[in-house]
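Read as amino acids, tokens; as here:

___
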Amino acid sequence: MVLSGDAGVSLIFVFIFIGMAFAGGVSLWWFALAIGGIAAMFPILWQFLGQYQRNRILILFDPKVDPQGINERYHSKINLQSLTGGGLTGQGLFNGNRTQSGALFAQHTDYIFSSMGEEIGFIGCVCIMLAELAIIARCVYVGVRCQDYMRRLVCYGAASALMFQLMINVGMCIGVMPVIGLTLPLISYGGSSVVTIFMMLGLVSGAYARPSSLSHERYVQPYRG
């Protein structure tokens, strides 16, 4: 997926694995070993990235990559201007200057958070984020409540996926994360994204509504060493 240019989806799977492994009791030494391995392989992985992918990362640390702001930094600049242009309460729903004029790129998918910032302001964005965090917290709560590890890990995996998408999407809009094309959960337009999220939430709801008849079984034996 990374080689095909769809790095966002591949990173979601990585984050799901990390969340489930942590919840399953994997020793922190394994996480440290994995981080060290990735750091050692980073120069090799860097060579497989396209130039535009490298620039999306470099632009976060070196503005000289696009000093005029007309290439890689252009969309980030417009996004940040839109996000901060709404002030505290916004310019009004469907009244955002950059959003309605079409200057804001991908305003219904990747950069919908910037569109919301312009139209419903800081207060509206905070409310949206609190609602997203409430859903994530509920997934974690259901996971804690589950008596068998299989369903528990499913709930933690769903929470990890939603949290990762939220962090990356908001981070893209405020310019602290590279643009990798992840939508804002349950807010952005997109058929496959919405269906996938509803499927995850359906699994979580099923784990809450129908406790396992094999609650005494341990599908995953956590390591506590």
Remarks:
- Residues 24 and 221 are 8 Å apart (CA to CA).
- The helical segments are 7-23, 28-48, 51-58, 72-85, 97-101, 112-145, 149-174, 191-209.
